[in-house]
User: Fold these one by one.
Assistant:
Number 1:
Amino acid sequence: MADSSRTPAGGPSQGADQAGHTAVAERIPFVDLRRQAVDLHDEFEAAIWSVIDRAAYTMGPELARFEQDFAGFCGATECVGVSSGTDAVKLALLAAGVEPGDEVIVPVNTFIATAEGVSHAGAVPVFVDCRADTALIDPSLVEAAITPRTTAIIPVHLYGQPCEMDAILEIAGRRSLAVVEDACQAHGATYRGKPVGSFGIAAAFSFYPGKNLGALGDGGAVTTSDPEIAARLRLLRNHGQQDKFTHVAIGYTDRLHNLQAALLSVKLEHLADWNAGRRRAAAAYREALAAAGAAAMPFSCDPEAEHVYHLFVVQVDDRDGVRAALAAHEIESGIHYPVPLHLQPAYGQLGYEAGQFPVAERLTSRILSLPMFPQLTDAQIERVTSVLRGAAEG
Ligand SMILES: Cc1ncc(COP(=O)(O)O)c(C=O)c1O
């Protein structure tokens, strides 16, 4: 599949020019996870062995330390480490009181995990179209999707850009809906200076390896500033266990492992710098693409938002042709996401049809995600944009 974190990193490889001469082109990977790990080798080694030396693999001090630091980073009072972003969505909804049969509003253009979290909580996802200029959920369409069974809305801060939280919180407040943010792609992003993870009653984060803050395996977290929600999350992630032999709820094995928490603490120290690196790369992409106009158009960035560019996505007419041209020049790319959720077979039973979400449906055939990681160089950006422009401007 084409998720950023699921696209392999590359290395130098061989290609042939038009005259048939073999040349070695430096591959430009979509993400460069190995580079991060190499840079942090000594800190990782110390963190790993401090956990192994004590054989403290679950629910230990490393987890508590990371939770405290990540809550602070997100402007929340509490953070509960869990097993994945998908489980974070599920647990946040359950802890917020969402019940079987409830309806939860979800943007139609997101990774399927947002909707899966709703389904795992026993609720039904109700899809809403997105804005053409940002690809984020369109707040003006939310009210029409609300029914007497609606209990929550999940704004997804897609690609690393915060949703229009003022508008969403206003609707949710007026219609008594819980807001659970899906911040799985947006660690460190802000809206009107306030970090994502601090707007809703709870927020879900993923630490899948390719995320802006990624573990060395699966992981996730829920942030909240409601102590009762945090207490419920702590029960649910660990078998409903209140003390060693007392289980007050039927829970899950959904804990964030100590080893991952220790590694995430090392990485958290660097996250603000890495996000700044992503913003620098995005600014360079925007500058290089400005002259291409509509031929290769990035999404707009809301002036109220500080975007953290988990992904840098452009819209092009001949997406498959442009993608093939990039691949021919050893440049990796991705599509996030090629099929909107209402057309996914897994949600066929909901009865949606093609044509119901025209903005998302149009975008899915035009979007193309370019290489994006903090250490992307100006020379790499120049190579990507010149191949892109050559192919897109035709
Ligand atoms: C928007 C969004 N929501 C949820 C998830 C689920 O996270 P995880 O893969 O950790 O379960 C992801 C991760 O890919 C995501 O991008």
Number 2:
Amino acid sequence: MILHNATLPDGSRHDIALKDGRIAAFHPASSAQPGIVVLPALVDGHIHLDKTLLGLPWIPNQAAGNRVADRIEAERKVRAARTVPEAQTGANLVRQVMASGTLHMRSHVDIDNQLKLRNLHEILKVREQFRDLVTIQIVAFPQSGILRSPGTAELLDAAIAEGADLLGGLDPVGIDGDLDGHLGAIFAIAERRGVGVDIHLHDGGEGGIAQLEAIARRTAAAGLQGKVAVSHAFALGSVPIEMAARTADLLAGSGVAIMSHGPGGAAIPPLKLLREHGVEVFGGSDNIRDAWSPFGNGDMLERAMMIGYRANFRHDEELAFAFDMVTAAAARVLGVEPYGIAVGTPADLVVVEAGSLAEAVATRPRRKLVIKAGRIIARDGVLVP
Ligand SMILES: [Zn+2]
């Protein structure tokens, strides 16, 4: 297969030859006219495949208030009324994101002392079902806390033994009220099992910063540099810039990455400042049509636009940064290797009609082609049978 007259994210233009599932060669562009933009496979650094209600009749959001705890409670009600297994709705979401060009993702999966490992088993089925098409990394996520849901630490450990890839966490202070107890439980398992960590941290202000500092210190002490991420980290966007910069230095020095989805209702971390200080910054969808959010569709090009919109990005380089968060940066955090558009890498590509990468981010055009290992798996936004 040859992709003619393809503009790459860096603006260069080539005819790209694909062979045996890989990128075989770049030839001079056969036409001077702009045609298509060819992107690397999109990467969703934070999704919840077990929570989505995608494909079910509309279920109104039932959260009684605006706190994390209110949403956890509302989700219990929705889950109790659920008649369709999570493997089915999770598969609905995987099909939808594949059609939009996402071929790698990190999914958090709820674990607590009521659910036990049920959701993990459901999403392991989804991972198996799509194993030839997408990579799904699984985070064992203590959605109800660890200390306030006794038995959860043992379940998290069992989840890793059964196939989860990383340990999750949730607001050590805001939910569990015990910074050292919560982090101690997570890092003990992570160290023993030799796996990474990805912690949801909504707690804002200086209290949130103190938790980021503690995570950075434990990461360095455990030798887990480069394997730890904090998702959301709203605190970084809610304190004076000098404090955010100091914290950024600590995060960078400890190899802790930050995930942002371009939040609508909270302070967004200062993404450019973080990157300037050496922090790996990546993107994800977070909630998609679930008990937490009625919104979302898993389209990572649209997510790059939303991140840029929330971060007040305007220049092409800024849009390229937002795009990097949902491609190369997320791939590095997930350990997807080899990745990118180069001779010899897997031909996992997304083709859109646009004149440049920045235009593609701004307009989020329909995906003309999604290519997995040299084979077309979706055309015009629809999976091929
Ligand atoms: Zn999340």
